[in-house]
Amino acid sequence: LLAIWVASFQIILDKGQQEDWLASAFIRTLLVIGIIGLVIFVMRELMTDEPLVNLRILKNRNFATGVLLMGLVGAILYGSIALLPLYLQELLGYSAYMSGLTTSPRGFGSIVGMILVGRLLGILDGRMLIFFGFCILTWSNWIFGHLSLDVAPTNVIWPNIWNGFGTALIFVPLTTLTMGTLRNDQMGNATGIFNLMRNLGGGIGIAIVTTFLARGVQSHQANMIAHVTPYNPVYQHQLPIIQHALSGQVGSYEGHKMAYGVLYGIVQQQASLSSYIDNFHLMTWASLLCIPAILLFKRASRKGPVNVH
Predict the structure, then answer these.
(1) If you average pLDDT over every residue of the chain, what do you get?
(2) pLDDT per residue as tens digits for the range 238-288
(3) What is the pLDDT of residue 307?
(4) Rounded to an integer, what distance in angstroms lies between the CA atom of residue 13 and that of residue 74?
């Protein structure tokens, strides 16, 4: 049952945008199978005395809060990781190699964050570190939301480093607080659920941003194209300039026709940029809205794990 519902939802998340989501009979069938499998799985695990996955540990407030936050962090993290390379390659014309070099410094931020959080965790409250981590994550995504078509690699590298640093401040104390009030015999089940939520959250995040990106481009393009008319002063000014520039290369007749294609390409490019910005703003708000959930955590006991009951 676990394999059935997890596999069904993963395929839905992976193929949903390609198959146009619920417009596809294949996706609808998988959704029904996944929901039925999940419901029966939960019922089975709660009714048996020795469950494969002990869902009763979700009664623990710290663990339930941590699982929820890990799912959200996975969605935000993987969503932003999926967006940046696409933005660099599709809009800025970076090669796959250059795109990788530009996004890889995120790892340096994570390394520094891991070293720092390891030293601070015994001094500061873990909830405070998670708060600072989400603040930095929100700030870095906010910077991504102000990118344009005229940016240098450093405009992407530095917020990427801060993004990795903020994520590192979240992960370690989040794991500590989530597991800190569980008994040792509950750790195996807890770790499995915790990692599963991270992976599911990542799949959901990637599915959301790819869907919003594709549909956002269509929406922005429809809005922009309404202004590309002979009655628009900007259109009246730009079209002759483009026609004149092309006429010197391909002739006046071909230049006149190709100018419309150039204008349409500009509209598509601007629509894509607006859609990327919308998605980065979505990541910003999602990071910000995670902060209040930190208040649900109880401080983990320094004396060791306590009984969940």
Answers:
(1) 87
(2) 888 887 787 777 777 677 778 888 888 888 999 999 999 999 999 999 999
(3) 42
(4) 14
| H or E element at residue 38 | helix 25-47
Question: Positive or negative CA dihedral for 60, 204, 191, 81?
Answer: negative
Phi then psi for residue 150, to 5 deg, are -120, 60
Place of tokens 């959200």: 72
* Cα 268 from Cα 265, distance rounded (Å): 5
